[in-house]
C-alpha cells in the first residue's frame, strides 16, 4: 500500500508500531507481539507480516550492533537449521491459514509459553540443554516468525529456560532474528508478494522512530535489574497473548 493511500492516523499508527519494534529489539520484550494485531488492522494478517519484516530487520541490525558481543553461539548453531525448516513450513502453510483462527491458535501457544516460563521461574530450574528441545524451539520459532512475526515468545521460552543473563539473552535473540528475518525476505518478495517498493517506502518512513526506539530501549534495559528483567519478559509476553485473543 502506498503512503498516499494512508490517512494521517494510519501513518501515525505505523510510526508508533515502528517505535515499539525498536524498543522490543533493544530488549523490552513483547512489544513486537503487541504490534502484530495493530498492523493487521491496517493491512490484514498476511500482508502485514510483509510490511513489518523490513522494520524488524532495520531494528535487528541496530540491536546486533550493540549486543553482538553478548551472543551465545552455542545455542544459535543449534537453533538455525531447524528454524530454517520452520520458515519453509510456514511459507507453505501460511497461505492456507485463516487470519482469525491463526491469531487464536497463536494466543494459546503464547499462553502455554508463559505457563512454562512461570513454572521454570517458580522452580528455579533450567530445562536440560537437550538437542530435541533446541530443534523443537527452532522449528516453532521459524514457523511462527514466518507466518506472523510472532516467534518472540517461543525464543523467550527457550532462552529463559537456558537461564541466560539479560545481555546474553538479548544478544542471542538479536542475532537469531537478524539471520532468520533476512532468510525470510525472498519468500515474502517472490512467493507471498507481501513486500513491494510502496511498502518498503513506508518502512523507510518509519526508520527514524525505529532507531529512536532501539536506543531508548537500550537506555531502559541498562537500568533494569536482572531478576526484574526476567519478569518483564514474562509479563510483556502474557500481555501480548491477551492482545491476540478475539474481542
Fold and architecture overview:
The protein is mainly alpha-helical. The protein has helices at residues 8-25, 31-43, 45-67, 73-94, 99-123, 131-148, 152-161, 166-192, 197-222, 226-244. Helix 3 packs antiparallel against helix 8 (166-192), helix 3 crosses helix 9 (197-222) and helix 4 packs across helix 6. The radius of gyration is 17 Å and the shape is globular.
Topology order in helix (H) and strand (E) letters: HHHHHHHHHH
Amount of helix: over 70%
Number of helical segments with 4 or more residues: 10
> From the helix content, strand content and strand pairing, which structural class follows?
mainly alpha
Give the overall average pLDDT: 86
**Secondary structure tally: strands:** 0
**Cα end-to-end separation:** 26 Å
> Which geometry do the CA atoms define?
globular
Flag low-confidence runs.
Answer: none
What is the gist of this entry?
It is built from 10 helices and no strands. It has helices at 8-25, 31-43, 45-67, 73-94, 99-123, 131-148, 152-161, 166-192, 197-222, 226-244. Helix 1 (8-25) runs antiparallel to helix 2 (31-43), helix 3 packs antiparallel against helix 8 and helix 6 (131-148) runs antiparallel to helix 7 (152-161).
Amino acid at each position: 500500500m502506498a503512503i498516499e493511500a494512508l490517512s494521517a492516523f494510519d501513518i501515525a499508527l505505523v510510526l508508533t508500531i515502528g517505535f515499539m519494534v525498536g524498543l522490543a529489539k533493544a530488549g523490552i520484550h513483547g512489544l513486537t507481539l503487541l504490534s502484530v494485531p495493530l498492523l493487521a488492522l491496517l493491512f490484514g494478517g498476511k500482508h502485514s507480516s510483509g510490511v513489518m519484516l523490513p522494520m524488524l530487520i532495520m531494528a535487528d541490525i541496530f540491536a546486533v550492533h550493540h549486543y553482538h558481543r553478548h551472543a551465545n553461539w552455542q545455542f544459535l548453531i543449534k537453533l538455525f537449521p531447524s528454524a530454517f525448516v520452520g520458515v519453509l513450513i510456514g511459507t507453505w502453510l501460511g497461505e492456507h491459514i485463516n487470519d482469525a483462527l491463526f491469531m487464536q491458535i497463536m494466543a494459546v501457544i503464547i499462553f502455554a509459553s508463559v505457563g512454562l516460563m512461570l513454572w521454570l521461574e517458580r522452580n528455579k530450574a533450567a530445562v536440560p540443554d537437550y538437542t530435541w528441545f533446541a530443534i523443537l524451539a527452532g522449528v516453532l520459532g521459524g514457523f511462527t516468525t514466518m507466518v506472523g512475526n510472532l516467534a518472540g515468545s517461543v525464543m523467550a521460552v527457550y532462552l529463559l529456560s537456558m537461564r541466560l543473563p539479560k545481555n546474553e539473552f538479548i544478544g542471542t535473540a538479536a542475532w537469531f532474528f537478524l539471520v532468520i528475518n533476512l532468510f525470510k525476505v525472498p519468500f515474502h518478495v517472490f512467493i507471498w508478494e507481501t513486500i513491494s517498493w510502496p511498502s518498503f517506502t513506508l518502512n523507510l518512513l518509519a526508520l527514524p522512530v525505529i532507531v529512536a526506539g532501539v536506543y531508548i530501549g537500550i537506555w531502559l534495559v541498562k537500568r533494569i535489574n536482572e531478576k526484574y528483567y526476567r519478569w518483564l519478559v514474562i509479563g510483556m509476553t502474557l500481555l501480548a497473548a491477551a492482545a491476540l485473543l478475539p474481542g
